[in-house]
Amino acid sequence: MSTAEQAERSAAIAGARARRLRAPRPSLAGTWWRHLIAVFAVALSLFPVAYMASAAFSADGTLSGASLIPRDLTLDNFRTILSGTVTVAGEPSDIPYPRWYANSMFICFATAILTVMLGALAAYAFSRFRFRGRRIGMLTLLLIQMFPQLLAVVAIYLIVLETGDVFPILGLNSYTALIVVYLGGAMGVNAWLLKGFFDTIPAELDESARVDGATPSQVFWGVVLPLAAPVLAVVGLFSFVATLNEYVIVSTLMQTRDHFTLPVGMRQFIDKQYAEQWGVFCAGVLLAAIPVVVIFQFLQRLIVAGLTQGSVKG
Q1: How much is the mean pLDDT over the chain?
Q2: Measured on CA atoms in the order 163, 254, 169, 190, is the torsion positive or negative?
């Protein structure tokens, strides 16, 4: 190609880019209904959060007198729950909220990290290797997810109870046992989700890395996982949120109050034990939502970075 032809082609490409940049934006007249639906969805989603925030900052300890804009702003509810003492019928009562918070963060982070790693290992094996029982194994993981979690609570309790007699670290009131139970329940869906993403990563990349002298572990950790960063972030986020909100299993396996997580511990603020301290309850819920918001923002950037930086140099 001559120099003149190259210059003409470059000018044509530059002109096309300039036209795309100057393309008029769609008018509001044709998309007003989309904006209306978006505003309605945002308002519907934020209404419970705004109502709870109002109750948390309000001096009134009930929900009946709460409104979207609190009349008397106060931080007493936050001081009460962070101090670890609440007044019930004129008597101080101990509430280990900081301990519940630390328990939840430890269990959620450990479960999310281990779920991502175990799910990635299983999905990579199902995606890249061909072995006997591969299809049956994937179908088995899928069928297990069809049964509700409540059906397995009694069996899980008995297994953990009997296992604790032999290995106390896997018995009742053990964080390790709780994390192992969560890992077993989250493997099926995550393995399928990760496998579908691994299938979109060309297998030629693995072969090129092996030709360059990479070991199988280097191919997995250095080539496949960086390209799968978006789906790993999604799986980690879902696992963290699901573990933080889980109530049934943790209330069954954790027998003492110091071992409770936030859902089980906060339940006591709206029953008769703490005389329905709704303002303190709302303050604790808002504090519990902070890690979820922060992690979501962090993983959101990670997803964008994984999609834009997951290319391969040619």
Answers
A1: 78
A2: positive
Q: Which residues contact 53 (CB under 8 A, 6 or more apart)?
A: 282, 286
- Which residue matches tokens 């504090």? 287
Q: Distance between CA 59 and CA 210 in Å, rounded?
A: 65
Sign of CA dihedral 273, 279, 281, 287: negative
Which residue, 75, 109, 93, 103, is CA-closest to 175?
103
Rounded to two decimals, the pTM is 0.78
Rounded to the nearest 10 degrees, how much is the dihedral formed by the CA atoms of 115, 118, 120, 125? -150
Paired with 58 in beta bridges are 73
Please report the pLDDT score of residue 309 as a whole number: 45
Chain segment 147-198, per-residue pLDDT in tens: 777 778 888 889 988 888 888 888 888 899 999 988 887 777 788 888 888 8
Residues 6+ apart with CB under 8 A from 275: 88, 89
In sequence order, the 6+-apart residues with CB closer than 8 A to the CB of 91 are: none
Q: Are the CB atoms for 246 and 178 separated by under 8 Å?
A: no
The string of pLDDT tens digits covering residues 49-70 is: 888 888 788 777 666 555 667 6
pLDDT value of position 62:
63
How far apart are alpha carbons 115 and 187 in whole angstroms? 7
Q: Nearest-CA neighbor of 99 among 278, 264, 261?
A: 261
How far is Cα 287 from Cα 306, in angstroms, rounded to an integer? 30
> Which segments of the chain does DSSP mark as H helices, in order?
3-21, 28-56, 76-83, 97-128, 134-144, 153-166, 175-200, 204-211, 216-219, 225-227, 229-245, 248-253, 262-266, 278-308
Identify the band that residue 312 occupies on the pLDDT scale cut at 50, 70 and 90.
Answer: very low
